[in-house]
């Protein structure tokens, strides 16, 4: 199970990496493994809108189940990874790089303090 250092994690198994004025958001390796083969992503937010921490960004449909994806921090939506719509298995194979879901301009970076670091996330999932 891959849990990279330097990212922040939610208890709902999303991750965020903030670099400068941009946050990249996706689901964790643990989440994609629990979901199984991902067959469809339905991102219901649009570029340019403001989202709040905890808002639903959309859903992920897998062979086993359907799961919502939540926004770990508040901000303005900058980009959506459309390539995962054409090939959703990218999220299974590379959830922390090519399998990112959205990019956001954080409006309150202090919200990152409420998220888990890698060691706390490992503890949460029993690693």
In brief:
The protein is of the alpha+beta class. 19% of the residues lie in helices and 35% in strands.
* Low confidence ranges: none
Largest beta-sheet characterization: 6 strands, antiparallel
- CATH homology-level superfamily: RNA polymerase II/Efflux pump adaptor protein, barrel-sandwich hybrid domain
- Overall, the morphology is globular
Q: Strand order of the main beta sheet, please?
A: 1-2-3-9-8-5
Count of domains: 1
CATH architecture descriptor name = Beta Barrel
What's the Cα radius of gyration? 13 Å
The percentage helix is 10-25%
Distance between the termini: 8 Å
Mean pLDDT: 95
Strand content: 35-45%
Q: How many alpha or pi helices?
A: 4
| The top level CATH class name | Mainly Beta
Compute the number of strand runs: 9
The quaternary organization reads as: single chain
Structural class: alpha+beta
Per the CATH scheme, the topology name is OB fold (Dihydrolipoamide Acetyltransferase, E2P)
